[in-house]
Design a protein that fits this description.
Elements (H helix, E strand, L loop, with lengths): L1 E7 L5 H14 L4 E7 L10 H16 L7 E11 L2 H13 L4 E6 L7 H6 L2 E4 L7 H19 L7
Parallel strand pairs: 1-2, 1-4, 3-4, 3-5
Helix pairs in contact: 1-5, 3-5
Length: 159
Amino acid sequence: MNISIITIGKLKEKYLKQGIQEYLKRLSSYAKVEIIELADEKAPENLSESEMEQVKQKEGVRILAKISDDTHVIALAINGKQKSSEELAKEIDSLATYGKSKIAFVIGGSLGLSSEVMKRSNAALSFSKMTFPHQLMRLVLVEQIYRAFRIIRNEPYHK
């Protein structure tokens, strides 16, 4: 299975990079996981609604350019469906069973994802109704993907 995590913005915090690298190392025996970092759109703090949409559009174009037609896309969105770790594992296992060997998880920038990215997505996933920094979500997502593979293989993992 090939899993891409397409994300807006560069990761700066060393502790997050270390955590992500640890889970990527652990995941290497289950799947090929690639993190694709895309530039965020520079914008001032106080944006109008239309300016926010323009930022999301520009970031969305960069995201969509990295997604092939045969990829199953799961967007991380605050209004997405919340799932348990077991439900996410079941979804990943089901995709593999039915021949979907490419999955892309998409993490938008601080303003979220464009409507075009959401339309291209096959599913929207929410980790919580709370708002998290998108850099932190990268670590949480990689850990949950690792946990999913442990669940799929009936291997022990801390609950």
